[in-house]
Amino acid sequence: MCGITAFRGPSAATRAHEALARLEYRGYDSAGIAARRSDGTAVHVRTLSGVAALVMGLERDPDATTAAIGHTRWATHGGVSERNAHPLEDCGGRLYVVHNGIIENADVLRERLRSAGHRLATDVDTEVVVHLLEEAVSVGLDLGRALADTAALMEGSWAVVVLDTRTGALAGTAHGSPLILADTGDGVYLASDVGAVAPFVSAFRVLEDDDVVDIDAEGTRWHRAGGSRRPRGLWPVPAISLLASSGRHTDHMGNEIDEQPIVARRVLDALSPGIRDGALWNRLGLPPLENVDRVAVLGCGTSLHAGRALAGVFARAGHLPTRALTASEAGHEVWEPRTLVVAMSQSGETADVLRALDGLPSGHATVLALTNNTASSLARRADAVIDCLAGPEIGVAATKTFVAQVLTGACVALSGLWSSPRADAATLEADFTALAGTPDALSGALHAWRDRAAELAGDLVTASGFLFLGRGAGLVYAAEGALKLKELSYRWAEPHAAGELKHGPLALVDAGTPVFVVDDGDPRLDVDIAEVQARAGRVIRVGERSLRVGGLELQLPRRGPSWGPLESVIPLQLFARELALRLERNVDKPRNLAKSVTVA
Ligand code: M6R
């Protein structure tokens, strides 16, 4: 989603810009920087051409700046334009503001400000913040106090940082949207994500709701709601031992797809030794499963799909009542005691997930966070955290984090279930064996489908819509394939339980309609396929458990693992990317999307 960076100290614009580049993949509709130069003048640059393009606009010496704020935007209120890009300025060009979140009462505040004579130049909700600050500062309040008073008038969610270009002071506050502070010794950063500053600091502090910090020549002052001045505690920046995927593709997504067998191997090497003795489960401090009556897995988008696959492990191998919840709908849930909640989120910053956890009745549930960001808001909020070890994923469309989440979740679940009397011992053994074969199965799928996916994309480049079918454990992979296709190619793609075809979706099938079928070995799929073929639809079957050896087709055991045919996601990812490339889409930055969705 949007990204915020700020720095007060030497070479401020350069430092804020460097940090901003690390957040760009999270939101890329526009970018901007405002800074105070050492000579007391202001610089304000905005662009639709990406963070790198800001350098040109920073003109003169960007190092001769003492305080700066930066932003990458994912538009919510107001179209994508330079005019609507952050930082936004007040009437006098003195104060500049960057904001993540949504000001829900912006319309009312806007009217009030207009009648008071302010010139509002954009369609963005954030603009009211800078004009309210202007009013507060004009009556003599210091920046921190002005920000606290302004925030008291706002409804919604925000992380806000304001720069006073006259004094070089910065102030920040947060309410339902992350903001962290990190001291480098020679200066102070504010950022919406620790990833922005991870290479430059070893520890950081997190602003809790309604905290205000102000940073000026006299230092950093912390104001907690309720009056305390004590700074929040320090969190270590997790060591970044894993590098972003690299390889033969110029896009990140292609390399991230290719890296999946390696990621799978890494997860299994780290976690599978702790399965059979339950050590992995115990290390996480999770309650024994005798004390858990049900499991609820929640997440959004691809993480929700990974959660559904994980739910299959608790249900099929563990015979535990399990449900997978769309986090944005979890507010309607009735929570029972003794529930284990597994919150899935690669970014750990997804507002819908965090809000779902806010709705849990206290004392009812243990929350396990399964994330690729152990320094995230989700990780800090959970009772236990497991790192899915995918390494940095830059492509907005999740690929390797999906595989990592499914396998990490499966290892944790199997570890907990190993000693559970209600679990099915034969299924546990079969799942354990299947885990070990996963990296090869993923490699095999890459090998088998790379050229085929490209050819298929060539054939289907004019298709306007796609169906994705599956049954049982295969259904979630059909859903993931459809999600990948729509987000990358901007073509319609509908996932359905194959048994539902005859209840409506079959009406969509015409001569040549592409229908992907995820084959998890359920024999009833043959009937579903026949129904499509009878209407001359084009069936593309993926995940078949067969292997061609020396010209012979060998059938693999039909029963797949409890998490379903994970390797079937590979052809679907490859196809989505190939189709998108043919359609000249940006596969790393699909339109209208963002890597980290921090508004609920
Ligand atoms: O960071 P999260 O895993 O919580 O993100 C959840 C979804 O926003 C995310 O999976 C989204 O659906 C991706 N663009 C899918 O490729």
From TrEMBL:
GO terms for molecular function: carbohydrate derivative binding; glutamine-fructose-6-phosphate transaminase (isomerizing) activity. InterPro entries: GATase_2_dom, GFAT, GlmS/AgaS_SIS, GlmS/FrlB_SIS, Ntn_hydrolases_N, SIS_dom, SIS_dom_sf. Keywords: Aminotransferase, Glutamine amidotransferase, Repeat, Transferase. SUPFAM superfamilies: N-terminal nucleophile aminohydrolases (Ntn hydrolases) (SSF56235), SIS domain (SSF53697). It is an enzyme of class 2 (transferase). It holds the Pfam family SIS. It catalyses: D-fructose 6-phosphate + L-glutamine = D-glucosamine 6-phosphate + L-glutamate. This is Glutamine--fructose-6-phosphate aminotransferase [isomerizing].
